[in-house]
TrEMBL record:
Gene3D superfamilies: Ribonuclease Z/Hydroxyacylglutathione hydrolase-like. InterPro entries: Metallo-B-lactamas, RibonucZ/Hydroxyglut_hydro. CDD domains: RNaseZ_short-form-like_MBL-fold. Pfam families: Lactamase_B_2. This is MBL fold metallo-hydrolase. GO terms for molecular function: 3'-tRNA processing endoribonuclease activity. It comes from Gracilibacillus oryzae. Residues 44-237 form the Metallo-beta-lactamase domain.
Length: 270
C-alpha cells in the first residue's frame, strides 16, 4: 500500500510537471471570425488569434472582429497583425484597430507601436493615418518573418487580388497553415504539405465546384487535405446559405482526415 501510494504520488507529480510545460510551448489558435463576405448576426468575418509564449498575433481582421477579439484578449496586448489580402471581409476592422491603438496610447495604456503586415501591392495606398502608432509593412511571397519564436512564410494564392496563405512554424517544429482566400493550386498543396493544422477556406458546396474562381469548394478542400497529407483540417470562411454541418459532411465523405470547423468557441493547441 505504501509503495502503491508512492507510485501514485510520483505520477501525480510528473503529470503536474509535464502538463504546464507542454501547454506553455504549444501554439494556441482561436477562431474569432469565420464568415465570408459579411458577418452573420453578432458574429465576424475572417479573424484568427494565435498565441504562443506570451505573444498575441491576429491573422486577418475582418468585419466585426474587434468586438469579438476583446472577449479573448485586451487589444493593448497585441504584438502583431498579419493580413492575407485587402478584401473587406479580411481587413475591415483593421482601420478601427488603428484608432483603438491611438486612443489606448493617448490614455497611457500602451507605449509601443503595433506591427501590421499586409499582403498587397502597395501599402502606401491604404488609408492609415498614424505611422508612429500603426507600423504598416508590406509582405511578399518571399518574405520571412520572425515574431517571438514563431517563423512565418507566405504563399501567393489564386485569388482576384493579391492574397497569401500563411505558414507558421514553432521551435518544436509544429506547423499551422491558414489558407486565406484561394482557388485550388498545386503550389498550395505543396505549401500545406504535412502541416499539423490546416485552417482552410471552404466557400462552396460540392455541387458548386468551379462556380467561382479564386475560392474552394468542399471537394477541393478534401483533395488538398488528402494530397498535402495534413493532420487536422479546420474549415472556415463560410457561405451564408446551406449549413456548415453540410460542408463538414461533404469534406469528411471525401477525406480520411480529422475535420473540424471554425466557431466562436473553437480554441485548439497545435
Ligand atoms: Zn474572403
Ligand atoms: Zn478575398
Amino acid at each position: 500500500m505504501v509503495l502503491a501510494g508512492s507510485i501514485a504520488r510520483f505520477f501525480t507529480y510528473k503529470k503536474c510537471m509535464d502538463w504546464p510545460v507542454r501547454r506553455m510551448e504549444a501554439m494556441k489558435l482561436t477562431t474569432i471570425g469565420f464568415w465570408g463576405a459579411y458577418p452573420s448576426k453578432n458574429e465576424a468575418t475572417s479573424c484568427y488569434l494565435l498565441e504562443e509564449k506570451g505573444k498575441k498575433i491576429v491573422i486577418d481582421c475582418g468585419s466585426g472582429a474587434l468586438a469579438k477579439l476583446q472577449n479573448h484578449i485586451e487589444l493593448t496586448d497585441l504584438d502583431a497583425v498579419i493580413i492575407s489580402h485587402i478584401h473587406p471581409d479580411h481587413i475591415a476592422d483593421l482601420y478601427c484597430l488603428e484608432y483603438a491603438m491611438l486612443i489606448q496610447q493617448q490614455l497611457g495604456n500602451r507605449q509601443k507601436p503595433l506591427d501590421v503586415f499586409i499582403y498587397t501591392e502597395n501599402v502606401s495606398h491604404l488609408p492609415f493615418s498614424y505611422p508612429d502608432i500603426f507600423q504598416v509593412k508590406q509582405i511578399k511571397e518571399d518574405s520571412q518573418l520572425q515574431i517571438g519564436t514563431l517563423s512565418f512564410s507566405f504563399h501567393n494564392n489564386l485569388h482576384e487580388i493579391p492574397c497569401c496563405a500563411v505558414k507558421i512554424t514553432d521551435q518544436a517544429g509544429k506547423s499551422f497553415v491558414y489558407s486565406g482566400d484561394t482557388g485550388y493550386t498545386e503550389s498550395f498543396v505543396q505549401f500545406a504539405r504535412n502541416v499539423d493544422t490546416l485552417l482552410i477556406e471552404c466557400s462552396f458546396f460540392l455541387e458548386q465546384k468551379g462556380l467561382v474562381k479564386g475560392h474552394l469548394s468542399t471537394v477541393e478542400v478534401a483533395e488538398i487535405a488528402e494530397r498535402a497529407d495534413v493532420k487536422h483540417v479546420i474549415l472556415t470562411h463560410f457561405p451564408h446559405y446551406g449549413s456548415i454541418e453540410q460542408l463538414v459532411k461533404e469534406v469528411q465523405a471525401l477525406s480520411s482526415k480529422s475535420v473540424d470547423y471554425a466557431k466562436e468557441t473553437l480554441s485548439i493547441t497545435i
